[in-house]
Amino acid sequence: MPKVGMPDIRKPQLVNATMAVINRVGLHAASISLISKEAGVSTGIINHYFGGKHGLLEETMREILRQLSSTIISQLKPIPVDAHQQRINAIINANFEGFQAESKVAKTWLAFWSYSMHDVDLNRLQRVNEKRLLSHLKIELKALLPKEQAEVVAHGIASLIDGIWLRGTLNPEGIDANKARLIINDYLDKQLTFYAKVSRFQGI
């Protein structure tokens, strides 16, 4: 976390510089020197406020997660609380549109995923993000499915989001948001249809 007193103008400047450098040269080659040069600041500022590259990477990921959370909330806000499938679609869309779909953000996410396997702080951020996504999905799915089935489908959708995101990041053409929605909605529709048939058969 940045130290108290970090000028607000500097944080987005350094976060954007970090993502730009990772996008250009990768995480391991993204040195404090390159990031400070990209941001137009001295290396001392980064070391002072973030304690080095690790602290800056953590703040960068926090900002990406904040942006994702904000996008999900803003997309859900105008949708009626009982329009559950529409709200699920909004959650899906938020993961593939706008800021999250930018090349520099996608490559930073990919670097973060690989790095978080070996870093306690970054792994914790990843777990928080995973739990937040599952929580959003389960709230809506529990209105459409029994609790146990809602849990399974929520994990299925989250897995599809991650998988499509990973494949899209590795694709030179980037993430195809329309195809992502089609794939995930096809899975969701099949799950809802299957349970509806089971319920009728069992007389539920």
TrEMBL record:
Gene3D superfamilies linked to this entry: Tetracycline Repressor, domain 2
GO biological process, one term: negative regulation of DNA-templated transcription
Pathway membership, UniProt: Amine and polyamine biosynthesis; betaine biosynthesis via choline pathway [regulation]
Keyword set, alphabetical order: DNA-binding, Repressor, Transcription, Transcription regulation
Pfam hit, one: TetR_N
DNA-binding region boundaries: 31-50
Keyword Repressor: yes
InterPro entries with a match to the protein in the record: BetI_C (IPR039538), DNA-bd_HTH_TetR-type_CS (IPR023772), Homeodomain-like_sf (IPR009057), HTH-type_TetR-like_transc_reg (IPR050109), HTH_TetR (IPR001647), Tet_transcr_reg_TetR-rel_C_sf (IPR036271), Tscrpt_rep_BetI (IPR017757)
Keyword Transcription regulation: yes
GO molecular function: DNA-binding transcription factor activity; transcription cis-regulatory region binding
Domain HTH tetR-type, chain residue ranges per copy: 8-68
Chain's role: Repressor involved in the biosynthesis of the osmoprotectant glycine betaine. It represses transcription of the choline transporter BetT and the genes of BetAB involved in the synthesis of glycine betaine.
UniProt name for this protein: HTH-type transcriptional regulator BetI
Species assigned in the record: Vibrio sinensis
Lineage: Bacteria, Pseudomonadati, Pseudomonadota, Gammaproteobacteria, Vibrionales
This protein's encoding gene: betI
